[in-house]
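Researcher: I'd like a structural prediction for the single chain below. Treat it as a standalone chain; there are no partners to consider.
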Amino acid sequence: MTIQLMCAFILAFLFATAFGKYYIPWLRRQKAGQQIKTEVEWHKSKSGTPTMGGVMFIGGVLLAILTIGFPSMMRGRFVHLFVFLFAAVFGAIGFLDDWEKIRHAQNLGLSARMKFLLQLAAALAFIFLMRRLGFVRPNLYIPFANTSVPIPEWLYFIFAAFVIVGTVNSVNLTDGVDGLATGTSLPVCLFFVAVTFAWGKEYLELGIFASALLGGLMGFLVYNFNPAKVFMGDTGSLFLGGAVAAMAFAYDMPLILITIGIMYIVETLSDIIQVGYFKLSHGKRVFRMAPFHHHLEMGGWTGKKWSEKELFVLFTGISLLFAVISFIGVFQRYAM
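Model: Treating it as a single chain, here is the predicted structure.
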């Protein structure tokens, strides 16, 4: 199992780094540049940076699944492929959004209503499939307490759809600074790899997916770290959000997203609080700008303006800490 997980990581990493050398110049030639929001003035110099770079790590994950994960598929085990296809549906939604932005040369893609409906349909279809195949049950596993609470199946479906759509859009919000969503998600993938080691070979296929995503993201980070040569775009961020949510449900522990996804939650809550308070107070703000990483960039409450590299270290470090805490909370569930 160790060799297979290592091979998945290495293969996805090598694909992302090698493919990027040719893919990024091609994106430039196609004028597939990101348009920066007008209110983020200090990011204006990034306008025109190629987007849709998420294809690099998506391709790496697919290659690992079709090679390292092929023996499992020959034995009739397809969960890693199902998780990939689910994430790919969200990536396709993101691609449509990116394409609209490029086509109209502005930072506006699909309407919020259209994106929500497409994401909701994908979430419900995935949960229905996982339920039919026996990968999820209408029970909520409680991390740290190591117990499960049964809930009505209809309520579980509503809960699952809400969590999946929320996770996908939270990851998307985090993708606002060079390498931020990438760095924040690396410990999340590492957590799922560690869980595979702890829970045993039954979770090998999911481990291959998690390890491949870890490798693909690290290969992508070579080009995405500040100063970024390419952005993952909604193609990458929605795929990544879908992958994180799908793994949490495929491992049958969606509540663990509260801890491993702590920085995604912080970003989302800051946006919700900002909008809500702005409306209630008729123009007042809690944060200098939302989501939270922009608040820190602008000096936060202390006056210190965080650089993009400092934000990367901060978010990645906190995410790593909570990944360790999360592992402590679940590793004994099926420990060998």
